[in-house]
Automatic annotation (TrEMBL):
Coiled coil: none
InterPro entries: Calcineurin-like_PHP, Metallo-depent_PP-like, Pantetheine_PDE
Descriptive protein name: Putative metallophosphoesterase protein
Transmembrane segments: none
Native source organism of the sequence: Eutypa lata (strain UCR-EL1) (Grapevine dieback disease fungus)
Residue segments, region Disordered: 74-93, 210-239
Molecular-function annotations in GO: hydrolase activity
Length: 307
């Protein structure tokens, strides 16, 4: 396998961005691509991105951003009952139903989502494996300062004329609030990451045991000494590294990395403090996110955070 690339916030509802995407004609048949959310608001934006990506890359991953979750009004002339033949507005999908619809579109193109099993990307030459873990956490306004009363975070942002479109278009159905949806998502993907780490560790132990058995059997046939056998075992097992994790989430996992000098109070829509320990806890080597529209790379605790 080849290189692993990542990009976010294509926002294909804008013609400038669709034209820019169409101009990227290179193919990467041995490479992988992570689409870290905010491809657009409608099915056609997802289809455009997924078709473009899967035609050019070996494996494609996607996780949702807030824009994919927007409940956008749609129109259908076939459902119209008006005399002039005008379009009748269809009721848009909301919350979980909108997310599920996005996942269904991704699967039509073979794009891996947070709802699919995490898979291992072997890396260039197969010598640097990593488990790619797309997740979906949303946000819970907890990036507000400590002195902002709970439940007043949006009012606090509004004091500086800051308000996210999410407040009108991103609905949490069937959950009562976005905070409740976020809590449920974090708990679910924590379990999935825990299970992934446990399974990877068990697989590494089993692999090392199998390799040691193989070497022991071969050494008994050739009369290899115990010391030579141990050295061979150590060499063999170190050539098969335990897979690392690459955690992908549209919203930053760490509050400290939310850098918005022009609109600092927008930070309340940028993540949750519940994910602060994920990289260390699950042994991530890389964390990929989007949302901020500011490209940067940070290193925190030996982990690379790319936006």
């Amino acid at each position: 396998m080849g290189k692993l690339y990542a990009i976010a916030d294509l926002h294909l509802g804008y013609k400038f961005n669709t034209d820019a995407l169409a101009a990227l004609r290179d193919t990467h048949r041995d490479d992988g691509l992570i689409l870290a959310g905010d491809l657009g608001e409608r099915d056609e934006h997802l289809r455009l991105a997924f078709a473009w990506a899967t035609e050019r890359f070996k494996t494609v991953w996607w996780c949702p951003g807030n824009h994919e979750l927007y409940s956008m009004p749609d129109y259908s002339s076939s459902s119209s009952t008006s005399e002039d033949g005008g379009g009748k507005k269809k009721e848009p999908l909301r919350g979980q139903a909108k997310y599920d619809a996005c996942v269904a579109v991704a699967r039509e193109y073979g794009v891996l989502t947070p709802e699919d099993p995490f898979v291992t990307w072997e890396g260039e030459g197969g010598g640097d494996p990593a488990i790619v873990c797309p997740v979906f956490t949303l946000y819970d306004y907890s990036f507000a300062p400590e002195d902002v009363p709970k439940g007043k975070e949006v009012d606090w942002a509004a004091e500086k004329d800051i308000c996210a479109t999410d407040e009108a278009l991103l609905h949490p159905d069937p959950y009562p609030t976005r905070q409740a949806w976020c809590e449920a998502l974090v708990e679910r993907f924590e379990r999935k990451l825990e299970d992934t780490v446990t399974a990877a560790a068990a697989a590494a132990v089993a692999n090392n045991r199998d390799e040691k058995t193989k070497i022991t059997t071969e050494s008994s046939r050739t009369g290899t000494s115990e010391k030579e056998e141990e050295e061979a075992t150590a060499t063999e097992t170190t050539t098969k590294p335990k897979p690392k994790l690459i955690i992908v989430n549209h919203w930053p996992l760490l509050e400290r990395l939310v850098y918005l000098p022009a609109i600092p109070r927008f930070r309340i829509w940028c993540g949750t403090r519940r994910t602060a320990d994920w990289a260390a806890r699950f042994g991530a080597a890389v964390v990929v996110s989007g949302h901020l529209h500011i490209r940067r790379t940070d290193w925190v605790g030996g982990v690379r955070y790319g936006m």
